[in-house]
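Sample entry as discussed:
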Amino acid sequence: MTTPAFLRSTFIISVALLLAGCGGSQPPVGAPGAMQQNHPLAPSVPYQMLYRFHPWEGTHPEARLLDVNGMLYGTTPAGGLSGKGTVYKVSRSGVERAIYRFRGGSDGSDPQSGLLDVNGTLYGTTYSGGGSGCYYALGCGTIFSVAPSGTEKVLYAFKGGSDGAYPTAGLIDVEGTLYGTTSRGGGAGCHTSESAGCGTVFSINASGQETVLHSFAGSPDGSYPYVELIDVKGVFYGTTAEGGGSCYGGIGCGTVYSITPAAVEKVLYAFKNGSDGNNPQSGLIDVNGMLYGTTSGGGQAGSNCEYGNCGTVYRVSTKGAEKVLYRFADGSDGAVPAADLIEVNDVLYGTTTTGGGAGSCWAPDGNCGTVYSVTTSGAETVVYRFTGGKDGWDPVAPLTNVNGTLYGTTRRGGHQDVCCQFYGFGTVFELSP
């Protein structure tokens, strides 16, 4: 999972509002003068916090965990040697170690993607670093490999032009060639105002030669492909967070698209910002020939969410027929699903970044996010409600299934249970649904 600008800006605004309301440091919970902590709904399944992050080992994990022979591997976009992020591993008993700490120079910086295992070597992307261009001369991002022993190598450093810039998504391996997306770059403009471009789909071979398969233009093909591709019978499928239509003043509400290795791109569905949802921040999964995903906005008008829309779970056929399975309402059911779904025994599981309590989004009343399940017929169940204390909050990453046990991360929380549940550097957790 990645952290698109939409979610980052929402979080920054929300934190500012929370801290303004908190007035700085607060007394411990239960002490005189402390803010009231209202968690009206208890967790519902066995939960275990495996690890609380610390700055030296990485902070604020956003990406999916990767299971390799019983060890879980992941990335953090911050923390480590220079605050530029880490690649880490954690055992299922909770023993964690950073195997590589990014320095923020030619080696890359701010890894937001999950990892890919190819014959024992891990591959991923960094959002910035790798060169002297882009992002205040900090670099346009990299594709890297790292051995479990900690040896890191940059396969490709993006230049920010037609080759793409700012990769937030992980990679997939198809017959020895890696495929991925960049969230920016690829062209001269985007929506007539984004000079960095709307993003790309690319391939890279073992020798580090990068080839752009498609450069997004905003309309009608979409813009800002934040998430990794999936391969279904030799055709790749993905989503763009914006573009594809006329909503948002012509910017567009996002798309589901397909692209072949021969670079033939097609929009399967363009979101309309109504009950069908908008702004898909997650990738897709294939279940019996149907594609399933989430939108972080849209769905149910008149809900408790900001702007009245809390997001959806949807499915779309490879022919482009879309159907909403569930519309979140920001009550106890959760809100703003940003993570990819996973499938376990014909049931879909995911996370919402907020919701789960009884009030409006981002309020300090237990709306710290959820783990939920939804059937392919649309029946939703909250599996776990985060309380915002030591169990964490703001779960933006997809879950990982290991023999029927679910593993995941929270971007925040894990330490003091004080004002607005803001403190802490994130967690690794285990659930047994």
